[in-house]
Design a protein that fits this description.
The structure holds two protein chains of two kinds. Chain A is of the alpha+beta class. Chain A is 24% helix and 35% strand. Chain A folds into two domains: 221 residues, P-loop containing nucleotide triphosphate hydrolases (Rossmann fold, 3-Layer(aba) Sandwich), CATH 3.40.50; 117 residues, OB fold (Dihydrolipoamide Acetyltransferase, E2P), CATH 2.40.50.140. In chain A, the strands form four sheets. In chain A, strands 6-7-8-3-9-10 form a six-stranded mixed sheet, sandwiched between helices. Chain A is elongated and about 85 Å long. Chain A starts with a strand and ends in a 13-residue tail after the last strand. By secondary structure, chain B is an alpha+beta fold. Chain B folds into two domains: 232 residues, 3-Layer(aba) Sandwich (Rossmann fold); 109 residues, OB fold (Dihydrolipoamide Acetyltransferase, E2P), CATH 2.40.50. Chain B has ten helices and 21 strands. In chain B, the strands form five sheets. Chain B has a six-stranded mixed sheet, with helices on both faces. In chain B, strands 16-20-17-18-19 form a five-stranded antiparallel sheet, with no helix packed on it. In chain B, a hairpin with a 4-residue loop joins strand 13 and strand 14. The chains are: A alpha+beta, B alpha+beta. At the A-B interface, helix 5, helix 6, helix 7 and strand 16 of A face helix 6, helix 7, helix 8 and strand 17 of B.
Chain lengths: 369, 360
């Protein structure tokens, strides 16, 4: 049972201002992911919650109580690192039971708790093995088991599956999410991998240069990114971004992308709303799945040349050339037959974003949704 | 420009066999990707072609000439590694000129200037030419490494995980840049990676390597749609293909405790009719539909919201099954849902030897 509140956190390493005025509330039983590139301050934030790092100013409250002065061991929080720090001379069972040694629980009670955690992690058959006999995934399961066995108020995880291979990461993601649900814990999880963040989080806190950029559900940060950094950090392939300006042609609104490299038709209503924001320089952002493609000319579509086609199996990513600008589109598998083909493209107005180029902030102008 | 052929190549390191009787053919001007997990033998294959290792048996031909007796320089291949080995105190221009100023193969200065200018333009690093390489970003350094390979105009480009050290966004950008470059140069590329997305997105052909053996060589689409065995099926595609044990029930073949009735055509049907041996059924997440009118029932085990779509893990008894669903679909965890599948997209594998029954 825990909620965690970070209030006006500041942290310096020498001259470097690594956490800038950070405010974040993690609710009881919530799964919050701190997401950002290396050096953004996410691990430092996590370590500050754990008590492994002192903060220069601000408050950290767990269940409403300030903990800045409490030692890590008194905060009743469990920590899982990227590198499974297991005791090599102990079996998996002994590793998991280790945090219970200092408690006065009976042998039978300890045994019951170790087995409960082992069952949840599907490692019951590995309990008698030493870490050296375990695979990477199994070692990380043991490390997670050791963190969970105490039933801590909160679980803090720092890239716990970052060193595993792709397939195992997929499976472990599901397991971590299920464990979080079944154990009723509050989890704060750090990663630089946006797929991991999207798939695990109830809410994502995106960080960059020590500054919290946006906090929201996966749907929020994906569909309504607060600024260009979030827009481009979340989603794969990356959101298409280009310099943008509007013009009118035959009574219809067109957005010109790049240095006059090409133009797309958009509803006049959208142009009106963007113009109302009155920003000198605009950047347009469109995700690949919001670039619609037709193989024949159609009203409102722009003629473009298909360049490189990436067949990813379930779908293709097609690079469309507009002068020197490349817009990437997600299409059904095999929809564009060959590189060099002429196709017609349109932007989904409801999913077209506009940003103030100088500040990077989203104008928050959309037609619907 | 070169055609490469490896025949029956075996390579041992002490008692460890890295490659076993490997056959591989790379066409002139092809972008060939060698894909496999760590330890599969990818880098060894590349080093054998480069002339950095000698095989214990088998032949290696470049443009139909046996090159086993040739050293690395004579083979005229260019290598790009994961760790860019640039000269840190030199400028980008000096790094690019370096391969053209070797004692064996010194080119006249106007020729050097022309080649460096051309490479810099192709890679969009013209503005960096006079900068020292220790002041470049990771992506810029990797571009310069590739530039150093390009200026030599080698017969073959060999690339060993050149994008693995870069962040996700840069990797994505360089993927299409490399593909674009290869198309412009019309050169033969052998690209080694453990990342199936890189392999799918760039390769004209993909060779899947596992434990020193080539399992399948085919176009990306073919590898994805007709994986030759369980290893390829599980390795290519994200999320990984669902693989379920088939069960014989009342003379029918089913999966998921009888909920999934299986029918097949062609050679797979013939095979299934006889129920000769245990069979594993494969189906990709995008070939599973969730909807009220569907045939089978499951619990929602987990939902991953990827923004563009959701990956829903369904639980049927003890079995887990991943399905792709529209981002707009709201599914509470542990709620009951109904699901169906596209019967034409089922894959059948012999559980014993892992082979795809329709492909072999």
């Amino acid at each position: 049972m825990a909620d965690i509140i970070l209030r006006d956190i500041q942290k310096y390493f020498g001259e470097a201002h690594v956490i800038r005025q950070l405010n974040l509330e993690v609710r009881h039983r919530e799964f919050v992911v701190l997401l950002g590139p290396s050096g953004c301050g996410k691990t430092t934030t996590l370590r500050a919650i754990a008590g492994l790092e002192e903060i220069d100013s601000g408050n950290i409250l767990i269940d409403g109580k300030p903990v800045e002065r409490l030692r890590a061991s008194d905060r009743d929080i469990a920590f899982v690192f990227q590198l499974y720090a297991l005791y090599p001379h102990l079996t998996a069972y002994e590793n998991i039971a280790f945090p219970l040694r200092a408690t006065s629980e009976s042998r039978a009670a300890v045994d019951a708790q170790v087995r409960r955690v082992a069952r949840a992690l599907a490692i019951e058959h590995l309990l008698s093995k030493r870490p050296s006999a375990l695979s990477g995934g199994d070692m990380q399961r043991v490390a997670i088991g050791r963190a969970l066995v105490r039933r801590p108020k909160a679980m803090l995880m720092d890239e716990p599956i970052g060193s595993l291979d792709a397939k195992l990461r997929e499976d472990m993601r599901t397991e971590i999410k299920r464990l979080h649900l079944e154990n009723d814990t509050t989890t704060v999880y750090v990663t630089h991998d946006q797929v991991e963040a999207m798939s695990l989080a109830d809410r994502i806190a995106v960080m960059h240069d020590g500054v919290l950029q946006q906090v929201g559900t996966p749907t929020d940060v994906y569909r309504h990114p607060a600024n260009l950094f979030v827009a481009q950090f979340i989603g794969s392939p990356v959101m298409n971004i280009a310099k943008a300006s509007f013009r009118e042609e035959n009574g219809r609104a067109q957005v010109i992308v790049g240095d006059g490299d090409g133009a797309f038709e958009l509803p006049a209503e959208l142009q009106r709303r963007v113009a109302a924001a009155n920003r000198p320089e605009l950047t347009i952002g469109v995700r690949p799945e919001s670039v619609r493609i037709a193989r024949q000319p159609a009203d409102g579509f722009t003629q473009v040349e298909a360049h490189i086609i990436e067949p990813l199996g379930a779908y293709d990513i097609v690079d469309l050339k507009l002068g020197r600008q490349i817009f990437r589109a997600r299409t059904p598998s095999g929809f564009v037959a060959r590189a060099g083909d002429t196709v017609w493209a349109r932007l989904d107005a409801a999913q077209t974003h506009f940003f103030d180029t100088s500040s990077g902030g989203s104008l928050d102008v959309r037609l619907s949704g | 420009m070169a055609h490469i052929r490896l025949e029956n190549v075996t390579k041992n390191f002490g008692s460890h066999t890295a490659l076993k009787g490997l056959d591989l053919e790379i066409a002139d001007g092809e972008f060939f990707v060698l894909l496999g997990p760590t330890g599969a033998g990818k880098t060894t294959t590349l080093r054998l072609i480069a002339g950095l290792e000698r095989p214990n048996a088998g032949s290696i031909r470049i443009d139909h000439e046996d090159v086993l007796g040739w050293n690395a320089a004579q083979r005229d291949v260019a290598l790009v590694f994961q760790h860019y080995s640039l000269y840190p105190r030199y400028t980008v221009r000096q790094n690019l000129e370096f391969p053209l100023k070797s004692r064996v193969r010194r080119s006249p200065q106007p020729e050097i200037d022309a080649r460096v200018a051309r490479a810099a333009k192709t890679l969009r690093i013209e503005h960096l030419l006079d900068r020292k390489t220790d002041r470049l970003s990771g992506g810029e350094m990797q571009r310069v490494s590739i530039g150093r390979a390009i200026v030599r105009e080698p017969r073959v480009f060999l690339m060993d995980e050149p994008l693995s050290n870069l962040d996700a966004k840069l990797r994505e950008a360089l993927r299409s840049e490399l593909k674009d470059l290869q198309m412009k140069l019309g050169a033969t590329f052998l690209f080694v990676t453990h990342d199936q997305i890189e392999a799918m997105s760039m390769g004209d052909k993909v060779g899947v390597l596992n434990q020193g053996r080539i399992i399948q060589v085919a176009t990306p689409q073919e590898i994805y749609n007709r994986p030759r065995d369980l290893f390829v099926a599980g390795f290519v595609g994200s999320p990984a293909m669902n693989l379920l044990p088939g069960e014989a029930r009342d003379g029918r073949l089913t999966a998921l405790a009888g909920q999934m009735e299986l029918s097949a055509d062609g050679s797979a049907r013939e095979w299934l009719r006889r129920f000769a041996a245990p069979v594993t059924v494969g189906i990709r997440s995008e070939d599973i539909r969730i909807g009220a009118a569907e045939a089978a029932e499951a619990q929602v085990h987990d939902v991953e919201n990827l923004g563009v779509e959701k990956i829903v893990t369904l639980r049927i008894g003890e079995q887990l099954l991943r399905a792709t669903a529209p981002a707009s679909l709201e599914l509470p965890i542990d709620s009951a849902v109904r699901f169906g599948w596209n019967p034409e997209k089922l894959h059948f594998f012999d559980t014993g030897n892992g082979m795809n029954l329709a492909v072999t």
